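Q: Hi! First time doing this. I have a protein sequence and I read that you can turn it into a structure. Is that right? Here it is:
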Amino acid sequence: MTIRLARALTIALLLSPAMAGAQTVDLDAATIQQLSAAMDAGTVTSEKLVQLSLARIDAYDDKGPLLNAVLTRNAKALEQARALDAERKAKGKRSLLHGIPVVLKDNFDTFDLPTTGGSILLEGSVPPDDAFVVKKLREAGAIILAKVNLSEFASGGAFSSLGGQTRNPHDPLRTPSGSSGGTGASIAAAFATLGLGTDTGGSVRGPSTSNGIVGLKPTLGLLSRDGIIPLALSFDTGGPMARSVSDIAVALGVMTGVDPADAATSKSDGKFETDYTKHLNAGALKGARIGVARDFLGQDQEVDWVVEASLAAMRAAGATLVDVRFPKWLLDAKGEFYTAVRYPEFPVQIQQYLATLKPGFPKTLAEMSERSDKLVSTRPDGAGPNAPRWNLFKRELASGTMTDPRYTSVHDFGLPLVQAILDGTFTANMLDAIVYPTSSRRPEFINAPPDVPGGGAASGSNLANLSGFPDLIVPAGFTTDRLPVGISFVGRAFTEGKILGLGYAFEQATKARRLPAHTPALPGEKLPLK
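A: Yes, that's right. Below is the predicted 3D structure, encoded as structure tokens:
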């Protein structure tokens, strides 16, 4: 056979219908829409996805880089996956989430798995029912694969008394950030396709940027908080975390809805959507006006470089960029505003949650603090004291009440003022979104003292909590030492569709996300799409 004939036969084979249809995608890059289509075609099963997810947890959570992200696995996950596969064949899929593995931060109630807040104090607590959004996910056909570690009671570093320290898959010596660090590390390492975190002062967004994934803090009131262990309900919200903007859009539409058990969701009536994927437009940046919050630059030259490159990409895609600055008094006061509301709310609201638990668990924050004082030694399984969080119990107890002037003045007048300033910035500059580096510095070393330069990234993230506005995080690039940098797209209240469109366009233009070097692909993770 001549070389020319051999080449011709090779080309003909490659162009044949059989080979042309043999499309594959890496597990970590597959979107929910791609996986759903593959399951419809019968080339992938939910059982296979769960097996691959569990294999990655086996390889990288307790071994390899020791991410220590997973607290509790769902022992029935494979059984549930097989049942959902059979249901798909018999009746069709419930939604795009049918058969998709999901991990939950362990402050979302689950009727069949413990919900601990990462604390020894709630070890073994199984709530009476699912959180509202968890029930929505299950009804859509999602599989709750595992409950994952968090900052204890969603406050502090990525450490808990029950689960210990979670590590960053991009660099295990670095923090994955809190408080949704277990979700962030799990999604970056492809332990599951989708995860849920919570955000009170940046707790979805910090872990999203530190782990190089996409995350959304929705508008306060878009998603129900019923069945989520509270930290401060003036700010608390759940939020989806994933490896693509499209996956965030799919998940968000499944979880919305007015919930009588959470009065805040009444604000979403007539404003929430059940399909945010319709906003995913690769050309959405063309003609958009984007504000650049430069107050949060200038703290890490490598983060700044990635942000400036991101801004250049937005300009190239047709966006008009406008520099915006916030009043100095607001930048100086925003942390105090947050603490003035956050600390007094926790003792009251955690007591309301504890009242729903079975006998034997603490019923007040004071009782939690008393019990923690008696837990001064590490157990054989590694669980043990969490002094920083348990010291914070005492500060929360001493922070005053929700009728004190310090609380009421900020809650009743300060928060509306912040919202008015942000809203006015949008109006005065005719903006579609405001962008800023989600964390102004790269992820800190886990063992870095808090006063070491480079530790404790300053950020504008709590402005979105103080105002209640939505904030979407999209991977923007990497520093020289291969640490991820994220960029935030803040929108006005209930403009999730708009910022998802802008974030999607930016994501498609830059394609900055990467599978972490310490959690590489395993054999069998090339998935056939057809």
